[in-house]
Amino acid sequence: SQTPGVGHAVRPTRTFTSEVLAAVDDILVWDPISPVQMSLPTSDNDVDEEKCPDTPQSDVSEASNLPKPKKLSAQERLDRLSHMRIDPTAIHVTPVGQRKVGGKAQVMQATFKRGRWGRKRDVAAKKLLFNDSMDKHVFANGFVHEVELMAGLSHENIVRLEGFVEELENRIAWIIMSWEPNGTVSEFLANGKREIPERISL
Q1: Is residue 91 scored above 80 in pLDDT?
Q2: pTM score
Q3: What separation in angstroms does the CA of 115 have from each of 31, 108, 112, 163?
Q4: What span, in angstroms and rounded, lies between the C-alpha atoms of 85 and 192?
Protein backbone atom coordinates (compact mmCIF):
# COMPACT_ATOMS: atom_id res chain seq x y z
CA SER A 1 0.00 0.00 0.00
CA GLN A 2 1.09 3.58 -0.65
CA THR A 3 2.16 5.79 2.23
CA PRO A 4 -0.02 8.88 2.56
CA GLY A 5 1.87 11.99 1.78
CA VAL A 6 1.48 15.44 0.36
CA GLY A 7 -1.32 15.70 -2.24
CA HIS A 8 -3.17 12.57 -1.08
CA ALA A 9 -6.48 12.86 0.74
CA VAL A 10 -7.25 10.01 3.03
CA ARG A 11 -10.94 9.16 3.66
CA PRO A 12 -11.83 7.70 6.99
CA THR A 13 -12.66 3.97 6.75
CA ARG A 14 -16.11 4.33 8.26
CA THR A 15 -17.12 7.07 5.84
CA PHE A 16 -16.04 5.05 2.78
CA THR A 17 -17.93 1.94 3.96
CA SER A 18 -21.10 3.93 4.54
CA GLU A 19 -21.01 5.35 1.02
CA VAL A 20 -20.61 1.91 -0.54
CA LEU A 21 -23.51 0.44 1.42
CA ALA A 22 -25.70 3.40 0.52
CA ALA A 23 -24.99 2.88 -3.18
CA VAL A 24 -25.86 -0.81 -2.95
CA ASP A 25 -29.10 -0.01 -1.13
CA ASP A 26 -30.07 2.32 -3.97
CA ILE A 27 -29.60 -0.48 -6.54
CA LEU A 28 -31.09 -3.49 -4.70
CA VAL A 29 -34.12 -2.55 -2.71
CA TRP A 30 -36.23 -5.46 -1.49
CA ASP A 31 -39.80 -4.69 -0.58
CA PRO A 32 -41.42 -7.52 1.39
CA ILE A 33 -44.90 -6.46 0.24
CA SER A 34 -44.07 -5.55 -3.35
CA PRO A 35 -46.75 -6.79 -5.84
CA VAL A 36 -44.07 -7.83 -8.33
CA GLN A 37 -42.74 -10.64 -6.17
CA MET A 38 -43.25 -14.15 -7.52
CA SER A 39 -45.95 -16.08 -5.69
CA LEU A 40 -45.36 -19.75 -4.99
CA PRO A 41 -48.13 -22.35 -4.67
CA THR A 42 -48.87 -23.30 -1.11
CA SER A 43 -50.28 -26.78 -1.86
CA ASP A 44 -50.65 -29.44 -4.57
CA ASN A 45 -54.19 -28.25 -5.23
CA ASP A 46 -52.88 -24.81 -6.12
CA VAL A 47 -50.53 -26.37 -8.68
CA ASP A 48 -53.33 -28.35 -10.30
CA GLU A 49 -55.59 -25.31 -10.46
CA GLU A 50 -52.89 -23.29 -12.21
CA LYS A 51 -52.13 -25.99 -14.77
CA CYS A 52 -55.64 -27.19 -15.52
CA PRO A 53 -58.61 -24.99 -16.37
CA ASP A 54 -61.71 -25.37 -14.32
CA THR A 55 -64.06 -28.10 -15.63
CA PRO A 56 -67.71 -27.42 -14.98
CA GLN A 57 -69.29 -30.13 -12.87
CA SER A 58 -72.25 -30.20 -15.25
CA ASP A 59 -70.02 -31.37 -18.12
CA VAL A 60 -68.65 -34.21 -16.01
CA SER A 61 -72.10 -35.39 -14.99
CA GLU A 62 -73.39 -35.19 -18.56
CA ALA A 63 -70.47 -37.30 -19.82
CA SER A 64 -71.15 -39.97 -17.22
CA ASN A 65 -74.81 -40.07 -18.21
CA LEU A 66 -74.14 -40.71 -21.90
CA PRO A 67 -75.57 -44.03 -23.12
CA LYS A 68 -73.06 -46.83 -23.66
CA PRO A 69 -72.74 -48.29 -27.18
CA LYS A 70 -75.16 -51.14 -27.71
CA LYS A 71 -73.59 -54.57 -28.18
CA LEU A 72 -74.92 -56.05 -31.40
CA SER A 73 -76.27 -59.57 -31.50
CA ALA A 74 -74.95 -62.17 -33.93
CA GLN A 75 -77.98 -61.67 -36.17
CA GLU A 76 -77.55 -57.89 -36.23
CA ARG A 77 -73.88 -58.27 -37.16
CA LEU A 78 -74.81 -60.59 -40.03
CA ASP A 79 -77.43 -58.10 -41.22
CA ARG A 80 -74.61 -55.60 -41.74
CA LEU A 81 -73.15 -58.08 -44.25
CA SER A 82 -76.45 -58.77 -45.99
CA HIS A 83 -74.86 -58.08 -49.39
CA MET A 84 -72.85 -61.29 -48.90
CA ARG A 85 -75.80 -63.47 -47.95
CA ILE A 86 -76.38 -66.39 -50.37
CA ASP A 87 -79.56 -68.33 -51.00
CA PRO A 88 -78.84 -71.98 -50.14
CA THR A 89 -80.57 -73.08 -53.36
CA ALA A 90 -77.75 -71.37 -55.30
CA ILE A 91 -75.21 -73.84 -53.86
CA HIS A 92 -75.01 -77.25 -55.52
CA VAL A 93 -72.68 -79.81 -53.98
CA THR A 94 -70.57 -81.66 -56.54
CA PRO A 95 -71.38 -85.40 -56.18
CA VAL A 96 -67.88 -86.58 -57.03
CA GLY A 97 -66.10 -83.57 -55.60
CA GLN A 98 -63.63 -83.53 -52.75
CA ARG A 99 -64.89 -83.61 -49.17
CA LYS A 100 -63.08 -83.18 -45.90
CA VAL A 101 -64.44 -83.43 -42.40
CA GLY A 102 -62.86 -81.91 -39.32
CA GLY A 103 -63.86 -81.56 -35.70
CA LYS A 104 -65.83 -78.34 -36.24
CA ALA A 105 -66.75 -78.27 -39.93
CA GLN A 106 -67.15 -80.19 -43.15
CA VAL A 107 -65.68 -78.72 -46.35
CA MET A 108 -66.97 -79.89 -49.72
CA GLN A 109 -66.62 -78.91 -53.35
CA ALA A 110 -69.69 -77.23 -54.85
CA THR A 111 -70.81 -74.89 -57.61
CA PHE A 112 -72.30 -71.46 -57.14
CA LYS A 113 -74.13 -69.11 -59.47
CA ARG A 114 -74.99 -65.63 -58.25
CA GLY A 115 -78.17 -64.31 -59.77
CA ARG A 116 -79.92 -65.38 -62.93
CA TRP A 117 -77.22 -64.19 -65.30
CA GLY A 118 -74.22 -64.96 -63.15
CA ARG A 119 -71.47 -67.33 -64.18
CA LYS A 120 -71.37 -70.71 -62.50
CA ARG A 121 -68.09 -71.40 -60.75
CA ASP A 122 -66.54 -73.88 -58.36
CA VAL A 123 -66.53 -72.96 -54.67
CA ALA A 124 -65.66 -74.54 -51.35
CA ALA A 125 -68.63 -74.79 -49.00
CA LYS A 126 -67.59 -74.94 -45.36
CA LYS A 127 -70.49 -76.24 -43.27
CA LEU A 128 -70.03 -75.68 -39.55
CA LEU A 129 -71.10 -78.62 -37.40
CA PHE A 130 -73.50 -78.02 -34.54
CA ASN A 131 -74.48 -80.56 -31.90
CA ASP A 132 -76.74 -80.52 -28.86
CA SER A 133 -73.83 -80.11 -26.42
CA MET A 134 -72.85 -76.74 -27.94
CA ASP A 135 -74.08 -73.39 -26.68
CA LYS A 136 -76.14 -71.66 -29.38
CA HIS A 137 -74.78 -68.19 -28.60
CA VAL A 138 -71.17 -69.39 -28.65
CA PHE A 139 -71.76 -71.20 -31.95
CA ALA A 140 -73.45 -68.16 -33.54
CA ASN A 141 -70.78 -65.70 -32.38
CA GLY A 142 -67.98 -67.98 -33.61
CA PHE A 143 -69.61 -68.24 -37.03
CA VAL A 144 -70.17 -64.48 -37.30
CA HIS A 145 -66.63 -63.74 -36.16
CA GLU A 146 -65.17 -65.95 -38.90
CA VAL A 147 -67.40 -64.36 -41.56
CA GLU A 148 -66.46 -60.84 -40.45
CA LEU A 149 -62.76 -61.75 -40.39
CA MET A 150 -62.77 -63.22 -43.89
CA ALA A 151 -64.84 -60.33 -45.25
CA GLY A 152 -62.06 -57.96 -44.20
CA LEU A 153 -59.26 -59.92 -45.90
CA SER A 154 -58.05 -59.27 -49.42
CA HIS A 155 -54.84 -60.94 -50.62
CA GLU A 156 -53.88 -63.01 -53.62
CA ASN A 157 -52.62 -65.83 -51.40
CA ILE A 158 -55.76 -66.03 -49.23
CA VAL A 159 -58.99 -67.69 -50.32
CA ARG A 160 -61.70 -65.20 -51.19
CA LEU A 161 -64.97 -65.09 -49.31
CA GLU A 162 -67.85 -65.47 -51.74
CA GLY A 163 -70.55 -65.17 -49.10
CA PHE A 164 -72.39 -67.11 -46.43
CA VAL A 165 -75.53 -69.16 -45.94
CA GLU A 166 -77.19 -68.73 -42.56
CA GLU A 167 -80.25 -70.07 -40.81
CA LEU A 168 -79.06 -70.19 -37.23
CA GLU A 169 -82.44 -71.23 -35.89
CA ASN A 170 -82.15 -74.35 -38.10
CA ARG A 171 -78.45 -74.86 -37.26
CA ILE A 172 -77.36 -73.92 -40.77
CA ALA A 173 -74.13 -71.93 -40.99
CA TRP A 174 -72.10 -72.18 -44.19
CA ILE A 175 -69.10 -70.16 -45.33
CA ILE A 176 -68.71 -70.09 -49.11
CA MET A 177 -65.16 -69.53 -50.36
CA SER A 178 -63.34 -69.61 -53.67
CA TRP A 179 -62.25 -73.09 -54.70
CA GLU A 180 -58.50 -73.77 -54.74
CA PRO A 181 -57.75 -77.10 -56.48
CA ASN A 182 -54.31 -77.45 -54.86
CA GLY A 183 -55.80 -77.58 -51.37
CA THR A 184 -54.20 -76.04 -48.30
CA VAL A 185 -50.52 -75.12 -48.04
CA SER A 186 -49.76 -78.16 -45.86
CA GLU A 187 -51.44 -80.49 -48.38
CA PHE A 188 -49.63 -78.83 -51.27
CA LEU A 189 -46.29 -79.37 -49.56
CA ALA A 190 -47.09 -82.97 -48.65
CA ASN A 191 -48.09 -83.94 -52.20
CA GLY A 192 -45.06 -82.48 -53.99
CA LYS A 193 -41.34 -83.06 -53.93
CA ARG A 194 -39.76 -79.68 -53.35
CA GLU A 195 -36.43 -78.47 -52.11
CA ILE A 196 -36.03 -77.03 -48.62
CA PRO A 197 -35.75 -73.33 -49.71
CA GLU A 198 -39.02 -73.58 -51.68
CA ARG A 199 -40.81 -75.28 -48.81
CA ILE A 200 -39.66 -72.59 -46.39
CA SER A 201 -40.80 -69.81 -48.72
CA LEU A 202 -44.24 -71.41 -49.01
Answers
A1: yes
A2: 0.59
A3: 92, 22, 10, 13
A4: 37
